[in-house]
Amino acid sequence: TRTLGLITTDLALHAPSQIASAVKSRATAQGASVLISMVEHPQQCLPALQELLAQRVEALLVNVPLDDAHAEQLQALASPVPVLFLDVAPSAQVNSLVFNAALGAHLGVEHLLSLGHQHIALLSGPESSVAARARLAGWKTALAQAGLEATAVAHGDWSAVCGYEKGHVLLSGAVLPDAILVANDQMALGVMRACAEKGIAVPGQISIVGFDDTADSAWFSPPLTTIRQAFREAGERSVEWLLAPGSAEKFRQIQLPVTLITRHSSARRTSRQADREDLAQQLRNLALLAEQLARE
């Protein structure tokens, strides 16, 4: 039929929309068409898969965060139609094409450490997301290797609104971080808005590093330092693999590299910044002491 099926999460988010666009473009260039089924929850993947198979698709691409057992079940049910997954763990015994989340996390931590930052907070994605869990684990591992722990950890839903809300939480803790690692650029934009409202200069008082390198991140104020994932390349390579002769017989786990894009939202921690942070911490400690005395 020269028809591919794509099961994807919310196309309002940057990564799924970029991948879907690339899949459509490359499929058209290859003389194929694409049927898209958008799901809100992983549990909806099974009926979406059945519906696409009923329309006699030649191959399937699944861009939904799935645990190993769920992905393996879908691949077995689709057989002999080839399926390629874009958001699964390396341990899943399925055909997959994913970005190297551990490398991306290490690049972000190493960048901040090279700038002298020690108090680093983490804003992860949803706990249900395979990619978010991998980035969070990579951050914690890289910090532990440097003898550090995260100043604070929060989880968001990938949106700028949630980044704004969680940013206020991270900036209101007992210890003010001098840097924040954020699991995607849209949440990083919200964090930067929270910093502006609190009068915290980026990068003068705090450095922020995102993840994705969306088309707009170079135009944030200041332009965002981030980890680049080549979403269009992922979509294009997915189509090429699915349309290749004999793809159903090939077991492939492809891992794409990521790169650090340094812009102006991160900067070296200065002695003046350290002095301001020490003073701010002393004032917060005094405020807490005053509250305790007032209660007594």
Describe this structure in words.
The protein has 296 residues and is an alpha/beta fold. The protein has a four-stranded parallel sheet, sandwiched between helices. Strand 6 (120-124), helix 5 and strand 7 (153-155) form a beta-alpha-beta unit. The model has no long low-confidence stretch (mean pLDDT 92). The N and C termini lie far apart (77 Å). The protein has two domains: 3-99 and 230-256, Rossmann fold; 101-228 and 261-289, Response regulator (Rossmann fold, 3-Layer(aba) Sandwich). It has nine helices and twelve strands. Helix 1 packs across helix 8 (231-243) and helix 4 (101-114) packs parallel to helix 5.
N-to-C order of helices and strands: EHEHEHEEHEHEHEHEEHEEH
Tell me what the CATH architecture of the largest domain is.
3-Layer(aba) Sandwich
Task: Give the fraction of residues assigned to helices.
Answer: 40-55%
**For the residues shown, what is the average pLDDT?**
92
Count up the helices.
9
Outline the biggest β-sheet: 4 strands, parallel
Strand content: 15-25%
**What is the 3D shape?**
elongated
Rounded to the nearest angstrom, the distance between the terminal CA atoms is: 77 Å
CATH topology of the largest domain: Rossmann fold
Entry keywords:
296 residues, alpha/beta, Rossmann fold, 2 domains, four-stranded parallel sheet, 9 helices
Secondary structure layout:
Layout: E1 3-8, H1 14-29, E2 33-38, H2 45-54, E3 59-63, H3 68-78, E4 83-85, E5 96-99, H4 101-114, E6 120-124, H5 130-145, E7 153-155, H6 160-171, E8 179-182, H7 185-197, E9 207-209, E10 226-228, H8 231-243, E11 253-256, E12 259-261, H9 271-295
